[in-house]
Amino acid sequence: MVSEGIKNQMKEWRHYLHMHPESAFEETGTADYVAKLLAGMGLEVHTDIGGTGVVATLSAGNGTEVIGLRADMDAINMTETGEPDYCSLNPGKMHACGHDGHTATLLGAAKILSEQKNFNGTVRFIFQPAEEPGKGARAMLEDGLLDRFPVDEIYGLHNMPSLPTGTIHTKVGGIMASEDNFTIRIKGKGGHASSPHLGIDPLVTAAQIILALQTVVSRSANPLDPAVISCTEIHTDGVHNAIPSNVEILGDTRSFSPAMQALIEKRMRGICEGICQMNGAGCEFTYTHEFAPTVNWEQCAAVAARAAVNVAGEKGTNASCEPWMASEDFGTFLERIPGCFVFLGSGDCENGADNIALHNSRFDYNDKVLETGAEFFAELVRVRLPG
């Protein structure tokens, strides 16, 4: 059990972090705050990993295995409209995704394990920058994270206000999707709105493309392999009475495997180029990979499920949860080393839809789950590195 002292400290840490949000690769104050707390617990601390990342190491016994625990630190460029006593002091920035809670949770786990040392091996506490844009994990890896601070396995969590408070959910395989971004530029021939026959209307072409793209999922993808294609923006250089010459469509896709990513890109490119050619318009199609899918390793998911049962009980654990089509930078780690990601339920309302969602300007992390998250991380270490 987590002591009252540590519970109160985690809440204090979380509220401080909430008041001082910093966005991607700007987490200098956050990293300094985290590093000082970890050093005060007696851990070996290294800073400036991948920009503003922090890695702390704690060892006990003579075990040679190393487990990594990861939390993300960055906030979102959003103005807070909620009114907690510890509201954001940084204009235009807030912890709308709960990374303040994730950071406080991992600090709590470090505090528990540094005091108890009831494990045999080494734990790396990895505080990652820039999760929101999907760049932080890659930056830490490119800065030699795994060479300088080797780990055998890695674990992470994300709060979920749509799930009951204190429950823990995970699964084998894809638990969060990839995110790929696309831009489609259509070049037509603009003119007066009264004389469409004298030009090449890129807006009509764009409409055909937007509708046709939905057939990729419905007719080209295996229906048992989830995928989403969303066109989210459209821009033109037309006006009320003028057919545009140029249209730009932007959006993203979500899926759980490299094979599906490749299929989506190939089919989208073919559809865009084919429809543009059919209408006599030019086409420029770009497709970029922003987030890798988060795919849990089977052996690590079993460890996470066992630790979850020990902390949340059988009824509070779901080891075969539904995946979420959102994306998480943690997937980049799982491409390199074994590991597992879990969802920590943080919803107070019985109907999860009634809870304030992530990325809402009124979102505030539920302090009630700080204890559960910290104890889960600590229990993972005890299960995986028994003393």
From TrEMBL:
Domain of life: Bacteria
NCBIfam families on file: amidohydrolases (TIGR01891)
Domain Peptidase M20 dimerisation: 182-261
Cited InterPro entries: Amidohydrolase, Bact_exopeptidase_dim_dom, Peptidase_M20, Peptidase_M20_dimer
Species whose genome carries this gene: Enterocloster hominis
Protein's name according to its UniProt entry: M20 aminoacylase family protein
